Amino acid sequence: MSQAESVAAAPRVPRRALWTLGILRSELTMTLRRGRTLALLAVLAAVPVLVGIAVRIETGDGSGPGGGGGPAFLAQITNNGLFLVFAALSATLPVFLPMAVGVVAGDSVAGEASGGTLRYLLVAPAGRTRLLVAKYASVLVFCLVATAVVAVSALAVGAALFPVGEVTTISGTRIGFGEGLLRAGLIAVVVAASLTGFAALGLFVSTLTDSGIAAMAATVGVLITVQILDTMPQLEGIHPYLFPHYWLSFTDLLRDPVRWDEIVGNLGLQAVYAAVFGSAAWARFTTRDITV
Amino acid sequence: MTDTAAGTRVAGPGGETAAAVIETRGLTKRYRGGRPAVDGLDLRVPGGSVFGFLGPNGSGKTTTIRMLLGLIDPSAGTARVLGSPMPAAARTVLPHVGALIEGPAPYGFLTGRDNLVRYDSADAAADPRTRRARVDRALERVGLAAAAGKKAKAYSLGMKQRLGLAAALLQPRRLLVLDEPTNGLDPQGMREIRSLIRELAAEGTTVFLSSHLLDEIEQVCTHAAVMARGRLLVQGPVADLAAGARGRLAVTTPDPGAAARILGEHGATGLLTDGDRVSADAPPGGVELADLNAALVRGGVRVRSFGVERASLEDAFVALTGEGFDVAG
């Protein structure tokens, strides 16, 4: 909406730049305080606990973690608890984290529609673009919070159950614990950023339907489908364009020196997904009839 | 503002002086190419009125309200609310409009108060510094202050309805659009809400009220419009609408036969006898009713009661639509 559209006959409304952020704050508290969100975060926090305890029990009898199966970095956890952070993120990134994001993103608009609250937000008036931006922003914050919950839980469990200290990188060099911690933080941010493309996809799906459940199911369904496509060698040609294809590239942050090309490629791909599905969501949401 | 009634019958000369708060021209909504839900609507709501919007279920009332509030794009025609085009000027118009649309929709997991805080922070024009005070005032106004801390999912339908009204009253509004505001309320609650509506109207707020309760419209509205099958049948001051249907002359007597005969001799039409009650179309204005009564008594008819029953809005509605009120269009 341009300034030109505010017709002289309509009384001027005082607009303060900060007031417009009220909806963002409202969105964030609504998203993060909901029982459902807290349950998702609790499940995410439990994953590192389970992994940590399993590894601890497994190594307690002196046999060492068997074979090279399971998530990456599993074998290193016994030597350095910090590796539980990497292992937990590797374990949750393919399924748990995006599923949680899919639930929150899929429900973001469709949930308001099925609850009937969407019409009241729009006549408040929230403004369709403003509401959509606030919704996406709060989903992005959820991506970061969800990743941080996994990382912090893993760090706490790792430090409690295993020794911590210098980190041996994938390249074989050793870096100090402080720098290891820094890299763990950076990895968490990159993992969260890896979810932004999928979050935009979920937001778009959410604008297509008036049923929150349908939107959540469809979003998670797309995730699973794409994950399956990404494993089929016959479809190798399209793999580089699938949003989860480079997700595990965050491990390159554990090389010395860090290899950035795949990480940057991943972030670029996420940006493209965010732009495409964000625009699609905007185009759909700003033109559709709200009949519920 | 002179040709606002193009295509519709206006029941009377009143209501065309005040500036229009809502004005539509040829407003039309067609869903997926089917029969239009709203067809060429020329609606005019004068400022300061309490405007009743009547029609059977499925007559297009809700679609019209949603177009006025910018939730639905019209297929054709224009709508102006508070002088500005909708939906283009939604951002500047809607802060001055409070609305209750197709029933309340609170967030069940939030308290009544937090629901209002949520809706208020959605409005970029709402001052966060006065938010708490305005929320409390709105809760008080609808009689919900005591239950403000309870989760909305524990509310009864009537309480949810009050909460929806409170959301519409978070700011001083120039226009209130209330879709079935007394739905789910007990008689006491209905009375409270009606007196609240009168109070708001007295403060100068224009109230656009949709209802299927004809007596409700008659009790609180100054103006009304009737829709059926997506078309506007009539609009104008309520008094004029009701006057459009003629009243009935009713006589209660133990001698109905003689009464009907004498009334007939005096030119009464549409005579009906039902037990001890004889009724006829109200005679034209020139006839002195007392003379008719005297004629009855002279003719030996023992009259228990005698008088003209004013036509109700319901009579007017039936006369207009030719059908019962609850028939879907």
Quick summary:
Chain A is mostly helical and 292 residues long.
Task: Note down, in words, how this protein is organized.
Chain B: This is ABC-2 type transport system ATP-binding protein. Chain B: InterPro entries: AAA+_ATPase (IPR003593), ABC_transporter-like_ATP-bd (IPR003439), ABC_transporter-like_CS (IPR017871), P-loop_NTPase (IPR027417). Chain B: Keywords: ATP-binding, Nucleotide-binding, Transport. The complex is a heterodimer of chains A (292) and B (329). With 292 residues, chain A is mainly α. Chain A has one domain. Chain A contains 10 helices and 2 strands. Chain A has a two-stranded antiparallel ribbon with strand order 1-2. Chain A is globular and about 60 Å long. The N terminus of chain A is likely disordered. Chain B has 329 residues and is of the alpha/beta class. Chain B has 11 helices and 16 strands. Chains A and B meet through helix 1 and helix 5 of A and helix 2 and helix 3 of B.
Which secondary structure elements does this structure contain, and how are they paired or packed?
The complex is a heterodimer of chains A (292) and B (329).
Chain A: H1 22-33, H2 35-60, H3 83-92, H4 96-115, H5 117-123, H6 128-161, E1 167-168, E2 174-175, H7 177-194, H8 196-208, H9 212-229, H10 261-287
Antiparallel strand pairs in A: 1-2
Helix pairs in contact in A: 1-6, 2-3, 2-4, 2-6, 3-6, 4-6, 4-8, 4-9, 6-7, 6-8, 6-10, 8-9, 8-10
Chain B: E1 9-10, E2 20-29, E3 38-41, E4 44-46, E5 50-54, H1 61-68, E6 76-81, E7 84-86, H2 90-93, E8 97-100, H3 112-122, H4 131-141, H5 157-168, E9 175-179, H6 187-202, E10 206-210, H7 214-220, E11 223-228, E12 231-237, H8 238-244, E13 248-252, H9 256-265, E14 272-274, E15 277-281, H10 289-298, E16 305-309, H11 313-321
Keywords (chain B): ATP-binding, Nucleotide-binding, Transport
GO molecular function, one term (chain B): ATP binding
Protein name (chain B): ABC-2 type transport system ATP-binding protein
